[in-house]
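Dock flavin-adenine dinucleotide; give full complex structure.
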Amino acid sequence: MATNDPDADVVIIGAGLTGLSLACWLAQLADHNGQAMPRVHLLEPRTTYHNDRTWCFWDREDHPFRELITHRWPQWQVSAGGRRVVQSNPQTPYALLPADALYGYALERIDACPGLSLQQGVTVEGIEEQDGGVQVHTSAGTLNARAMVDTRPPENLPETSTTGFWQVFTGIEIHCPDHGYETTTARLMDFQACDDHPCFVYLLPKDAHHLLVEWTAFQSHRDNQGYRAQLEHWLASEGIKDYRVIRSESSMLPMIPISDERRSGRVIKAGVGAGWMRAATGYHFASCQRGSMLLAQQILAASASNQWHLTPPNVRSRWLEWMDRVFLRALQRHPDQAPQWFLSLFSRTTAPQMGRFMNDQPNLRDALAIASALPPGPFLKAALV
Ligand SMILES: Cc1cc2nc3c(=O)[nH]c(=O)nc-3n(C[C@H](O)[C@H](O)[C@H](O)COP(=O)(O)OP(=O)(O)OC[C@H]3O[C@@H](n4cnc5c(N)ncnc54)[C@H](O)[C@@H]3O)c2cc1C
């Protein structure tokens, strides 16, 4: 029976960024507050972890992985057609955290924490809510738990989005002798001429000889054609020819508002599938840390009281989500205006404002600065639908 003798208090489906963040927040908070650790079991199909991505974000808040940040850029820039805007804020730099460091740290933390366990090579096939518990059907059998957190990616996203974009990118990390880019500046968007959708180069000089460089497109349709050829062509145009590829990463991220996936009770969604990734930007790391911390607090409180009713944590405000929907709608209608709009956004806001806005925590004044940096016509029309 799920209620009387569960296999775990909480089952977390998926041990990617969200599942591992939640586990580490649970261990950290239980330890810090001297609370009893519930029995938490993570299920993950992967049998091994690879350095499959890097997470970048503005380094504003504390989280269990902060010491794993390997690079910080006190300046960031946006450029288009010969114009460039640079913002600088050494107190809140743009930061990079490699996936292998996070995976390695989290797996060790799970191993060392009584109460936490991870089962790899297991796929969840179905979930059944019951009175007083949840049954999780997996490729390795059935588990009973008091509650469940589902971090699987969203399903049934549209191939062609009418409410946002697919952010399609191809990136490589390269070694090249003396690339010549300033190593204090992260180049967030260097807009390129593309036919019908915004596209730009994202370039992070990790040191004098290493670059992470990506070609990114905001496109209405999902396709996996990749942009390696465009990236290589661009590198050649910059005079970077003699380089060695160390690793590559590519993906299609849904810049599509996801709001109907939230659930509450004993079964709760978390991560990208719960709309934690910011639709207007494709950034997720900062909101994932906030959401995981709030959820960990709830789980510890539920375990202490044995009242298992979890509610979706608010990772960002409703009005920010509304602003983002308006922004995406306006950008869909005027993709050719993207370079001007982003240049204006970064030139008419301060670096601290942009840091707060990008990490989902703008105050009212920041939101007004953002709104007044954009042309009123297209945005008012987009606000009225
Ligand atoms: C290449 C790349 C670069 C990115 N860079 C950034 C960045 O710089 N900054 C940023 O903020 N965001 C970035 N993102 C976006 C986002 O942060 C990541 O996608 C993040 O990993 C999403 O976290 P998640 O836990 O929701 O999903 P995932 O990390 O994908 O985790 C979901 C987990 O669920 C598991 N799973 C799936 N199906 C099942 C099943 N049936 N049963 C059990 N488990 C299952 C998967 O194996 C996976 O481990 C990037 C994404 C990618 C792909």
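Observed: The two ends are 50 Å apart (CA to CA).
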